[in-house]
Each structure stands twice: as C-alpha cells, then as structure tokens.
Amino acid sequence: MKNLCYLLVIMLTGFSCTKSFNKTNINPNQFENATPEAIIAGSIKRTSDLLANANMDYHWTSSHLLCIGGGSSRYGVGSDGFWEQSYVEILGNLNQLDKKYSTTEGFSNKVQIGRIWQAYVYSILVGTYGPIPMQNALKPEAGSSILFDDEDVVYTAILTMLKDAGDKIDVTKDKLSYDVLYAGDLAKWKKFAFTLRLKIALRCQKNLGAVARTHITEVMQAEANTISTETETAKMGYENIDGNQSPYYIRYVRNSFTQDIAPKMSDYIFTWFRSYNDPRLVAYYDSVPAINRYLLQDTLTSTLDDSLRIVTYRIPYFGYPKAPRLLPGWGLTSDPVGGLNILTYSDPKKTFLFTAEKPFIHLSYAETMFMKAEAAKLGLGGAQTAEQYYNAGIDANFANWGITGTAATNYKNQNGVKFGTSATGYYNYLGLVNTNVPQDDLFKIWLQQWINYYPDGGFDTWCLERRTRVLELPPHTNPANQYINATFSLLPNRWVYPTTVQNYNTPGYNDAVAKLGGDERSPYVNLSFLQPLPNKDWNTQTAVLNFGFVQHWYGTTIQSLQNNGIAYTLIRTYK
C-alpha cells in the first residue's frame, strides 16, 4: 500500500474535529475539496485503526484469545473515543460523500462503496451499544436532540443498505483510482457487500427472524457474489512509514511497551489447543525462552520396567489465566499458575503480529466458509454441504498460517473436530471449565470460527459468543472498573454509552435508555440479538487443580523425554 493513504488521512483530519455529541452529526462543510478516494481510504484506515486499538484495549481480553499482562487484562465497557471517532471521523465523512456525489454522473460505484462501509461501521456500533442514532444521525437539522433507533430498526436498515448497494455495484462503470482494500476491483467490493450481509443476517436470526432468514437465503442463492477465495479477503494493508504502521506495532514496538503489559496467550485457548493437538498453537504463539519456561511436575512410565517416575521438566508454551485471583468459595489456598512471572506465559507470534506492515483483516475467506457452513446446516441454502464448507474453512485458516498436508488432515479427522463426532477435552487448571465438544455440528462450526478470528476479529468473537453462548468461559476474577464492581465478572453484554451522549444529547440518551429496557450503566443488559447470559455463581463452584492439559507433553514415558533431549529432574520412583 502506498503512503498516499496516510496523506489522505492527514488531509481529512481537519474536517472532522468535534467533541460535542450534537456536533458529531453536524459537519455540513466537510470535504468541499476531498475526493471520494480520499474519503473512502481515510474511512477504511480509521476503521482499521479503531478496531485494532479496541482489540488491544478491550476485545483481546473478551475474546479469550489473548490476555493483557500486568493486571491490565480486565473486562471493559468502552470509551468516549470509540463512539466519537466512529460518528465524526468515519460516518460523518462517508455521509458527506453520499450527499455530495450521489446524484453526480460518474460516481455511482464510489457512492455505493461508501454506503457499504457505512453499513459496516453501523453494524459495529449497534453490536457494541445496542440502540444508536442512524436514521436521524448526521443531520444538521436534528440539532442537539438526536433520538436513537432500536436495534431491530438499525439491523433492518443495515441489511437493506447492503442489499441495495451490493446490487447497484456495476463492474463496468466508475471505480476507485486509489483503493486501500481491493485495489479498484469492483467485483470484490460487490462480494464484500454480499458476504457482510450474510454475516449481519446470521447475527440477527434471534431478533429479526424471517427477515434475517430471507437475507441469508438470498445471499446463499447468489454465492457467486460472495467471497470465495483467499484473494478476496477484505484486509487493510499497513506499511513501515510513520503514521501508517500497524497499530499493534505502534503500541508494542515503536512505543516500547514492557513485557509485563504485553499480550499473552490465554490459558483458555491454550487448553483447547492442547485438547485437540491443534497445530495452530505454534503458528499463533511464540515458545517461551528456555530460562522462563513453566516447570511441570509429571508422572511417567518406562519402557524398561513397570515403575512410575515423578519428574519435573520445562514446557515451551503456557497460557495466562483470566482468574488470577482465587474466589473464597473455591476452597483453594494458593494458585500455582495465576501468580507466575509474566515471562512464563507465551507471547503472540511477534514476527507476525508486531510487524509494521501487518494488514488488518475485516472479513476473511475462512470466516466466509464458516458462515456458509452455518447457513447450510440451518437449511438456508448453499451449493455444498455444511461439512464441505466447514472443512474448507479449516483448510483456509490453516493455509493462511502455513499449515498444510498431513497436519491439516490429521486435525480434521479427530473426534471433536470431524463432523458428526464428539470428544472429551481437558479441564482448565482450576477444574472449572472444560473443552468437551458435543456431537452438535453447529458447536464445531462456531468453535472453529472463534479460533479463526485470531488476532484481528476481537469484536467478532464478542458477537459470536454473545449470540451463541457456545463457549463456557471461565470467570474473570480481576474485573474491576467503574461499572463492574464484583468479586468476579462474566463477559459483558454491551458497552455503556459515552459521557458525551448524556452531556450533549440528553433527550437522545433518555430515549436510548428507554429502548434498552434496563440499567444503561450495567454491562449485563441484554441486547436483542444475543442469547441470555448464563446465570452462574462461580463463587459456589468447587475448584480442583488439574494439570492434565499439559502433562505428558513429550509422551507418556521417561524415554520420550530422553529421546527429545529434554532435561528433567527425577523426584522419585515408585510402583
């Protein structure tokens, strides 16, 4: 990607600066001289930056794919900046594109691309907060009293907008001369619109019912217009030029964040990877330097006699727990994992995640296959079977990480991964949650989709878990923030509205609270698309330390350690 993108964003910055919520919707003089290319490129980059920063601040923690070290890995409920940047710097700009060029000959496709991106950003906002301004947003005549639309109205409008814009893309007409997502390929933009429509409709099955199913069926009947190869993955590229580097690189490399607050592999996904011999463990995460590795006590047999040997040895990977503090009801006196040196836990693959040029993925080919697998499993169409789509999704994810051949085949053929099978996995180290897989194939689809979202799809993992409750997530025992003041925390259902909404748009805020139908300051108020949060008192559960998920790392015998050249200490031998 050329550094023109950075220059375009700088040029646009002066047109979108305001703090007041009412002014968020009143920028009538924006972009008198800006081109559609500048507006769209700037909006895509701002969205990518916004989501990447939200991952680091919030969504990596809620996804359980990564944890932030140093006590910073806490469930959050949002910030004023996310709302303001979305409305002012992205939607406000795209709205001006629509107003200025919608009736101008030679700009039809550019206007539709802007509308597609608007729909995408609105889908993020409504999935984050619930009721939001959409129909009355960005209208100067609304003044400072901008009422909110309920979720069903917003989702219906988003789906309608995506259908209309996708249908209106004409590959024979105007295209973007500078396109940071698809290099001017209009067919790919059309596929993005159709695939995004499928994604939003799947999210809204509970609240939109027949409307959502109609959209799903229509998209599945027009599969030629959906993402169907890796080259059609929607990703925003970065480059090693100041101002245009990956946000992950900026925070963790350029700004020299220390190890104690850098992201670490979650112990939850670590337990899943260990349960099913998942080769993505070594693709997603770095091994721990030998000096810092976790010292495991294990019991091994021998091929030479019938004695058992208790030994200790160090293992190359280890996950950071969401429960670093023990709850009083668990009956444990000490935590052998939560208090370890932060260097004991595995880092994400730094040569991948922390490079300046790492692209941000918005919608991937692998994700598309998992979405089609769900649609097919629900009987809502598709040229292939649900199992074929599902396997294609795993293959696409593996190929993206350089895992092919025997490793991929062996993984897919396991019980618990293969369609129509079930499996018993390991418990986490506290014995509170397990990685069992039922025979239900939707569970498998959603599980693989969750793993596929690493590392950019933090928001999408949050949506997936809230609408399916497919994962039994361990409790967060260090959840403190101004809205979550409890001994432990469950995954928040939503973010609270920023203070600017309450301060500058009181009528709109009161309208939103009424539409929510609950305590707006509670992160556990239900949104319309999600399944109810499981009501489980984790403090009443019995915790039992269990290290089965890491034992027998190199095999079940003492010879397996010796054959792998692993140093160990023999504690004792017994029969």
UniProtKB/TrEMBL annotation:
The protein's matches in InterPro entries, at most eight in alphabetical order, are given as: SusD-like_2 (IPR041662), TPR-like_helical_dom_sf (IPR011990)
Database matches in PROSITE patterns: PROKAR_LIPOPROTEIN
> What domain of life is recorded for the organism?
Bacteria
Pfam families assigned to the protein according to its UniProt record, in alphabetical order: SusD-like_2
Q: Where are the transmembrane segments?
A: none
**Protein name per UniProt:** Starch-binding associating with outer membrane
Q: Which organism is it from?
A: Chitinophaga niabensis
